[in-house]
Design goal:
Strands 2-3-4-1-5 form a 5-stranded parallel beta sheet, with helices on both faces. The chain has 2 domains: about 90 residues, Helicase, Ruva Protein, domain 3, CATH 1.10.8; about 160 residues, 3-Layer(aba) Sandwich (Rossmann fold). The protein is α/β, with parallel strands linked by helices. About 50% of the residues lie in helices and about 10% in strands.
């Protein structure tokens, strides 16, 4: 069976599964300040740019933000299918807000979203539009987003936009064509790679939650994982899982550097 390593190490669940509840997410100390800045920006009704490399923890960061936002005050909508035109983009937001999908023109859909934002303000609810993979947004959407946040002659902050994407997102926003939108983004955050200590703590935490109460990875194996993953949580999960499987096949009770090295080499990763 594919998951024989779970019984070999007496895990009660897959330690590096992506299927985690928001309450079970973990942020390293080096990222907790970013979460606080993100929350402060939303409470201040500001727009936010959050950029970082793949696997750096952007989604984890915004999920911990979601958990911390008071539902009686904030209405968070999430949009991740951004490779569509402007009309379909606003239709997604309509669906997230519970509005009908029967609007035909881009103008009608925009007016529906704009009207809903103003209605929520009357109910003392503040909408937060979180747009994931924003580096993939079509230019016509970037051309229009600043208009979405313009209420009462741009004198009222009735919503926050959170644009999440790869580092090239900021490069796009810096272009002269996008200066109207970029100038409105007061909070610009970059999430960096994990430190070695973050990686060690992360792996230990995931193992503990799977029922492992001992140091399963040797210290040099942990160092190798950090080096190979370049601080990416997604790559840490993959390499650690591959190493556990490889160790289980060899009937080993600990994961040593040579096992991690072979896993990385088989993936075409860096050699020690």
């Amino acid at each position: 069976m594919m998951l024989d390593y779970l019984s070999h190490f007496n895990f009660n669940s897959d330690p590096f599964s992506k299927e985690l509840l928001d309450a079970d997410l973990w942020l390293p100390p080096s990222k907790q300040a970013l979460r606080d800045e993100l929350l402060d920006a939303v409470h201040a009704h500001q727009h936010v740019l959050l950029s970082g490399e793949p696997g750096a923890g952007k989604t984890c960061l915004v999920r911990t933000m979601r958990q911390a936002l008071e539902p009686e005050t904030f209405r968070l909508t999430y949009c991740h299918n951004v490779t569509v035109g402007r009309r379909d983009f606003y239709r997604q937001i309509c669906a997230s807000l519970g509005l009908p999908r029967t609007y035909h023109s881009a103008g009608d859909v925009f007016l529906a979203v704009s009207g809903c934002v103003q209605d929520l303000a009357k109910e003392h609810l503040f909408p937060v539009f979180l747009i994931d993979e924003s580096h993939l947004l079509h230019q016509d959407i970037l051309d229009h987003l600043h208009i979405l946040s313009n209420f009462d002659w741009d004198s009222k902050a009735l919503l926050s936009l959170i644009l999440v994407g790869l580092p090239e997102l900021e490069e796009r926003l810096r272009l002269r064509r996008n200066r109207s939108l970029y100038s409105r983004i007061h909070c610009r955050l970059t999430i960096g790679a994990l430190t070695p200590e973050d990686t060690f703590d992360y792996i230990t935490m995931r193992l503990r939650r799977a029922g492992c109460d001992r140091d399963l990875f040797c210290s040099d194996a942990l160092s190798m994982i950090h080096e190979a993953a370049a601080g990416s949580l997604r790559d840490i999960d993959r390499i650690a899982t591959g190493s556990l499987r490889a160790a289980a096949r060899k009937k080993k009770k600990t994961v040593e550097r040579d096992v991690v090295t072979r896993v990385c080499q088989n993936e075409g990763g860096p050699r020690p």
